Amino acid sequence: MDKTLAPFQRYSPVARLFHWGMAAIIIPLWLLGFYVGRIMPHAATPQKALLLLIHKEIGPFIIILTVLRLVWRATHRPPAVSSDIPEEERLAVQVGHFALYAMMLVVPLTGWVRSSVHGLPIPMLWVVDLPPLAHKAPVFVPLVNVLHQFSSWILGILIAGHGIAALLHRYGRKDKVMDRML
């Protein structure tokens, strides 16, 4: 069975730019959040404040990129999935992609709400401060902290699963599924 894909079956250059560009932003941002939240000492330090500021400056931009990516996806048909892929795997791909897009919105939105209930500014890209999504409410800080961390872990697991699935296609099945995004 021929497992090669015709060039027209690749994702468009714009779709690939969104995919790899967002991966190049989200993965380091996730790792930075993990480092600041779990590895660095809990005491406030200038270094921790700087790293957290970088995390907060870039995080809201993910919302804009995700919305633009969803608009692109809605207006540009992705390549057809190979008929070699069983129906249950196709469903898993659809659910996985939906969950990835959802978490790419939920994680930065919960970060935005987190800063809002803390009463902190919500900076974006060192250019603008976003309006708060909620009033300062210290009583909700622990809940929003947990929501942001939990949704971040879900996003991290989904990204890892997405990467593992791509590598299994490339090196396990030795098909051209991964080549559609390269």
Describe the structure.
There is one protein chain. It is built from four helices and two strands, in the order H-H-H-E-E-H. The protein is mainly alpha-helical and 182 residues long. It has a two-stranded antiparallel ribbon with strand order 1-2. The longest helix is centred in the C-terminal third of the chain and has 33 residues, at 141-173. The chain is elongated. The model has no long low-confidence stretch (mean pLDDT 91).
Give a brief outline of the structure.
This protein has 182 residues and is mainly α.
Number of helices: 4
Separation, N- and C-terminal Cα atoms: 22 Å
Strand arrangement in the largest pleated sheet:
1-2
Class from helix and strand fractions:
mainly alpha
Instruction: State the helicity in percent bands.
Output: 55-70%
Poorly predicted runs of 5 or more residues? none
Rounded mean pLDDT is: 91
Strand content: under 5%
- Please compute the radius of gyration using only Cα atoms: 19 Å
Major sheet details: 2 strands, antiparallel
**Coarse shape:** elongated
How many beta-strand runs?
2
Order of helices and strands: HHHEEH
Summarize the helices and strands and which ones pair or pack.
Blueprint lengths: L12 H27 L6 H30 L11 H32 L3 E3 L3 E3 L10 H33 L9
Antiparallel strand pairs: 1-2
Helix pairs in contact: 1-2, 2-3, 3-4
Salient structural properties:
single chain, 182 residues, mainly alpha, two-stranded antiparallel sheet, elongated
